[in-house]
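Journal club prep, shared notes

We agreed each person brings one worked example of a sequence with its structure written out as tokens. Mine is MFS transporter. I'm keeping it raw so we can talk through how to read the token line rather than staring at a rendered picture. Sequence first:
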Amino acid sequence: MSKTPEAAGVLPDPNRWKALVFIALAQLMVVLDATIVNIALPSAQQDLGISDGNRQWVITAYALAFGGLLLFGGRIADLWGRKRTFTVGLLGFAAASALGGAATGEAMLLGSRALQGVFGALLAPAALSLLAVTFTEGRERAKAFGIYGAIAGGGGAVGLILGGLLTEYLDWRWTFYVNIPFAIVAAAGAYFVIREPAGGRNRSPLDLPGVVLSTLGLVALVYGFTRAESEGWTEAGTLGVFVASAVLLASFVAVESRVKHPLLPLRVMTERNRGGVYLSLGLAVIAMFGLFLFLTYYLQVVKGYSPLKTGFAFLPMVVGMITGSTQIGTRLMTRVPPRLLMGPGFLTAAVGMLLLTRLEIDTSYAGLILPAQLLLGLGMGTAFMPAMSLSTHGVQPRDAGVASAMVNTSQQVGGAIGTALLNTIAASATTAYLTAHAASATSPQAQRLVRLEAMVEGYTSAIWWAVGILVVAASIALTLVNTGRPDLAPRGTAKDGAPGDEVQVPVLAH
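Then the structure, token by token:
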């Protein structure tokens, strides 16, 4: 039987905490980019003459490339080595960002966004799998994943603040240029500081049919939800894309169960703890992405906040996430089973979301929105930390990249679903309210009031759905995640799904 590094007498990497700084910096850059461009989009659209019909592609081009190529990126990390993939992803992301900042037209901007997605799909799973193989001791792993989980959860809100600052005081192009120093510093740190443990690569031949089927299937799925938002759920083209996605992904599963060296070994998904993490985290992100969208529009359109003020209005959520992840999650992860952090964490977030169903035009920020955000942040931060750690629970080192890619994929697909699904629900409720009340509004002032009331009615209707989705996420976490707390004393080996697969992980106390 193989031994863990500690049991074999191999000391932990003395630079592991320095390495965490650069891994976290890279993750922050990727997460920031998911929201920072949203704030700058109106300015970029006007500057480059992008039509209203095409502006969504500034967001969608990135989402399609990133979501579609994540599994491939995770497998490349296992094949090339995580440090090399991490560095290539960083430098490629910086180059694509420079291209976007220098864009002279629509095609150049959209192309740069797609390139960012491609290199992001290399970078994100490499970062998480580096973290998984660098920190193996229980308490240290809890602390490292607490920091990483706080960044993964709160980075999107930080992106709104930074996007507002850059757009208001500099220029929209700086929302792209700001990635370059992030990437260069993280790449230099990776080169000089990060040491990837030996023997963790998977040098099996690349599963090309799996690459093609998974990439096309995930691209079709993300595009289907994006198209549903603009064209409708029952439109023939939308239904066709969803059918194609289902066929492609079903074919992918069939191929992976038969090939000798699969792109995604099915044991990575079918182990109940990891499966529970991927499913519950994907659902939670549906609720979170919907909230970012509605709260941003509520604060700017209904309350009249500037982009910068809107960004700062999200600070309580960021504070809550950092506190929940680094203070609650990290301190309790080594004392209680992960499900007792994930389940209550998602339920706490659901309570915060429930408060936001009481939104009205004149709702007090300090009286309702601030405490709701604190609860959301605390709950999600507490749940994200053990979820991130468990996403690579029990995997062989050679599968760490693709297991890390799965948690990123669940978040990316969840984000696409959340934006489309909840936005559609909100739009339907807004239309229904306008139909019922428009006739009674005769003056321009009354008409404006009805429009604002209709928007808020749409937001609260969708937020009710988000509450339900978070409750389902909590139920899945409490039901499927059954591993015990990490045993911090003796360490040994555990078996993953397939016979004969030796895994270097802590022994789990049930």
